[in-house]
Amino acid sequence: MSRTRAGLPRPAAFGADPTGERMARIRRSPNFADGVFVNPVAARITPSGSMLKFLPTYFRKADRIRRAPAGTVPVHPTTLADLAAPPASGLRLTWMGHSSVLTEIDGRRVLFDPVWGERCSPFSFAGPRRLHPVPVPLAELGPVDAVVISHDHYDHLDMPTVRSLAGTGTTFVVPLGVGAHLEHWGVPAERVTELDWEESTTVAGLTLTATPARHFCGRALRNTQHTLWASWVVAGPEHRVFHSGDTGYFPGFADIGAAHGPFDATMIQIGAYSELWPDIHMRPEEGVRAHTDLQGGTPTGIMLPIHWGTFNLAPHPWEEPAEGSVVAAEAAGATVSMPRPGQPFEPAAGPVLEPWWRAVAVRPEGGGPESRLTTGVRDSAVAVPRKHRAEAQL
After folding, report:
1. What is the pTM of this model?
2. What is the pLDDT of residues 191-207, one digit of tens each?
């Protein structure tokens, strides 16, 4: 265990701060100013508004119980069997929960933000705990060509998961500075590639590009903002995908789409939002807007909503991000796919449409709609383009 500057023991999960040439490279970044990384659009990274207003939401029983499912989340039971055969279309996505997605693209496998730990916390005994099990054991997932990390928060960069993957020989592709954490946990430096925004690297014939996001970083008590956060583009010979990481909405999505799109699929953060931190996480309607911007203003391709359902990280009801995505996508004419955790799907075959979360969501007291976003939503309205609606089995 290392020590802090005050001489106190520093938990290994805190990672390590960038030093030496890594820190020198960070200082040369055009996205680093006045000693910190800066956002493409100014963002508040601490809660705004009155905490006196915020605290009752967390402790009021009626609100608290709605932040977790009432029953067992139906994790897909045959993930490994379904992954045994390669995708017929050349592109398949498997949402493992939260922001973890296995992307099989043009014969290669990319694992985004893998979090297999029981808690997203530096401690095994405290912090947000899983609301559903991981769909498959990490050791049984099979070879991965690249692990891509969006930023260093605990719900995206998990020390136990990284240590397990460190022995597999895979390549880690991360934003600037994040490599210090990985090396601290045993990943060889030669298997870590760190990128600034709009820098690219090639892994197994795929081009991976770090693109801007509107968020922040930090794992320890003193958050120095010396590691970058990013969204990601992965382009193969035939397919392109986008993973948002964590981000608030900003106009730069259109620029990313113009430079790197269009995309066969986007993986967009739509959960853990609050009016108290509106600049660093998107609400569902903002996520759909980002998807549309990325596709040049026309909501083509399929959007996979991520960053919801696995950990309780915000005051909204557990199912609200899913319901909100349904509503927003239908209003925009966009297509969202809402698979269960571990359920592989190929975007070329159309979206997964079953609203499975409704069976396990806590009903609000006194009846009413399942969520304040669901009024008027029909099961058949899960953002299905007209050409797919005859095939939908809800």
Report:
1. 0.91
2. 999 999 999 999 999 99
